Amino acid sequence: MEYYHNIIMILAGLIVIGFVVYQLYLKFKPFLVNGKWYIPMLKTIEYMAEAEAKFDNGADRKIWVMDTLKDAMTRLNIEVNYDAVGNMIDAICALSKVLNNKK
């Protein structure tokens, strides 16, 4: 009898997991349309690290990162929402200040 109970619990768990995965897919589907969403994100972080060594001013860093990213994405023929990238850069900088206790 316990054997059947375990099978029912496993099936119920699989149904819940399937539902959650489907909901996540629906939530992130607009971001996955391009299929290359990770490239601008990784390049932005790479360019931010490079800009950290090149510039002293945060505004100059952001401008350089945005210009370099625009150039790279144009060469790769990938459409990017640069307002969202700018917001992502600001969020990463704010998070780094919190993590490093800078005020």
What is the strand content?
under 5%
Note the total helix count. Answer: 4
N-to-C CA distance: 61 Å
Q: What's the total number of strands?
A: 0
Show unreliable segments.
none
**What share of residues is helical?**
over 70%
The assigned structural class equals mainly alpha
Q: Roughly what is the average pLDDT, rounded to an integer?
A: 83
Characterize the biggest β-sheet.
none
Number of domains: 2
- Tell me the series of helices and strands, N- to C-terminal: HHHH
Report on this structure:
By secondary structure, the protein is mainly α. The protein folds into two domains: 1-31; 38-99. The chain has four helices and no strands. It has helices at 2-32, 38-54, 58-76, 82-99. The longest helix has 31 residues, at 2-32. The model has no long low-confidence stretch (mean pLDDT 83).
Characterize this entry briefly.
The protein has 103 residues and is mainly α. It is 83% helix and 0% strand. The protein is elongated.
Notable features of this structure?
single chain; 103 residues; mainly alpha; 2 domains
Q: Helices, strands, pairings?
A:
Blueprint: H1 2-32, H2 38-54, H3 58-76, H4 82-99
Helix pairs in contact: 2-3
